[in-house]
User: What shape does this take?
Amino acid sequence: MAKKNRLNTSQRKSLRQKEDEYIENLKTKIDEYDPKITTAKFFKDLPISEPTLKGLRESSFMKLTEVQADSIPVSLQGHDILAAAKTGSGKTLAFLIPVIERLYREKWTEFDGLGALIISPTRELAMQIYEVLTKIGSHTSFSAGLVIGGKDVKFELERISRINILIGTPGRILQHLDQAVGLNTSNLQMLVLDEADRCLDMGFKKTLDAIVSNLSPSRQTLLFSATQSQSVADLARLSLTDYKTVGTSDVMDGSGNKGPSTPDTLQQSYIEVPLADKLDTLFSFIKSHLKTKMIVFLSSSKQVHFVYETFRKMQPGISLMHLHGRQKQRARTETLDKFNRAQQVCLFATDVVARGIDFPAVEWVVQNDCPEDVDTYIHRVGRCARYGKKGKSLIMLTPQEQEAFLKRLQTRKIEPSRLNIKQSKKKSIKPQLQSLLFKDPELKYLGQKAFISYVRSIYVQKDKEVFKFDDLPTEEFAYSLGLPGAPKIKMKGMKTIEQAKERKNAPRQLAFLSKANDDGEIIEDKSKQPRTKYDKMFERKNQTILSEHYLNITKVQAQEDEDDDFISVKRTDHEINEAELPALTLPSSRRAQKKALSKKASISSKGNASKVVFDDDGEAHPVYELEGEEEFHKKGDAQIQKTEYLSKESAVMADIDGLDKQVAKEKKQEKKRKRLEAIRREKEATMEEEHSGDGGEGAPVAYLGTGNLSDDMHDDDMSESEGHLKKKARTVDYSHGKKQSSSDDNNIIEVEEPQTLEDLESLTAKLIQG
Ligand SMILES: Nc1ncnc2c1ncn2[C@@H]1O[C@H](COP(=O)(O)OP(=O)(O)OP(=O)(O)O)[C@@H](O)[C@H]1O
Assistant: This one.
């Protein structure tokens, strides 16, 4: 049977010839295409191959968007590209089509190895790009792979050498470049950076440099984003010299004639809200927008977690979901999928989904916390008003942030209109929050974490004109979260917030007194002296200034914030300079300050103090003056003196021994505390996972097209038992000369239906086509 379908040599030869002619014809059309003369309106007007056109048609992509019309012809001609176009303007297709076409014209096969590498800063975005690629590339014969983290590195290693188009996050791609002996990058034709400015910034610098050093310098490079830095140094790093720009000036600084860097269909507004009233305002906003689909951005995963957990208890009347980088990947993917399908829903999220994610039909983007910069603002609001659809955005600015941030927005021609909250609509949820936190220690704990992470987020911000740490109304803010008072925060090199602020604001006269304690005693700086074990013990004891609970929080916090998405997703050039950190304490009361001042005055007037003893004549002597022999004998029998001395010293030794035992006991307790802490964290992680899976909450659900990857993995022809699917035999239609897939026998690969992200990754690696 199989023999019947086999082509004989002359048929194969003729087919190859037709294919060559077709490709040559395409190349000529590309060379002849002059963007200055021709403006293609539809994909079919572009010099692109029939299989790609077929994939586009089937995905209902007919008409070109502006960035697609401007950039695709230039990319097809082989130029490097630096493109910046507004959010939701269709950049994904603008780089995917040239990638597919380049490999097509090169007649790329699985034996040629990696032909294109697409880098995205987040996993979600990489998955989305992969999804679009599998749709529009469904009639081509290339293999695509998604590497974004997961466990099955070994599995991927075995198959990665056969992948032609690899999409992934920087870290994971580097891991593969390092490990995969079979990954042949020497042939690489194209490198694409989506959200290029983010990929190029400090956070990914080292990884990206390492990736690029593995790649062939002769490759074509495409950089796309809604915001671009166009730093010459960045471009040089990518060996981008003779590149073409598309739409960059408009988007970069709003200097073009076309107005703001945000979509025209976006209606933007802001309200001035004191920090302590933000949650009241947010709750009222949600209550009055129950029939909408909205995303609320908060500054950290802890904020998101707290707001989600408390608001769902207060039941505003709309389905609530939450998404942040500290959730397990499975929960993130599930939430994303549910949110895409829902019609009336509110998603609390961090900036992990601020860039690139193409959520369908979002009506409102609310920024509860001010973004770190205008670029982040642009990306966040860009989650709505996509592809010409209407959308609305609201940003809450505190009186401290308002003026400076509006000024920053103006530089990009973004001028949101001011909204005022109707007095009648104002409702305080503070009493409810207080009662919730009072009843539920778990919520109180989340509240404390939310408080701490918010305060820290303000502290680490680079733009000090917008984020004024010293003006934070911490007590009011804590109260607004339902907490009885502001938790004390200890950060690296920083004492409590209040102390840090006090010290910053203290008069110069008092600044040098930062070493005085509450009793006005000057504490010596022992940091430069060798520390004895007693010093260490006392330091340890002093840590209990914080209650054990807060102590636990701050310790865990220090660990957690290492990879908290607020800090890690953002640029690492926002590093805190330890030297700038407030690190010392001030006497808290006026009495203590006064006392310390007078002590200081007397000490400074006397110069360096050293301890002395006075003799009967009032003469001062150093403490350790050698005693004369006569003097010694005068005091009595030497033996008795010796016994007395020894018993005094052994009493001192006994005291020291007691202290040692105390230290050992404390160590043991600390160990126990850590063990309990680990158990608690484990429990919390389980809870978090459980919470994250229940976002549906009976929301009216609309199923919008194929929004998820696993759907794409299904094949209509599935005939095997459930849980297995077959890959469709791909046919390439040259329309003017048809080509049957040359390796029918190899076209069927049985793979298991993906249940998890790891499965999905493994599956993508299996989907070797051709
Ligand atoms: N030519 C087209 N015809 C119809 N729909 C399109 C076309 N191009 C893109 N779209 C749709 O427009 C939406 C936005 O596209 P895309 O996600 O590529 O935008 P983007 O410019 O990358 O946005 P962001 O800057 O936020 O990443 C998607 O839903 C996509 O399917």
Remarks:
- The mean pLDDT is 75.
- The CA atoms of residues 131 and 709 lie 6 Å apart.
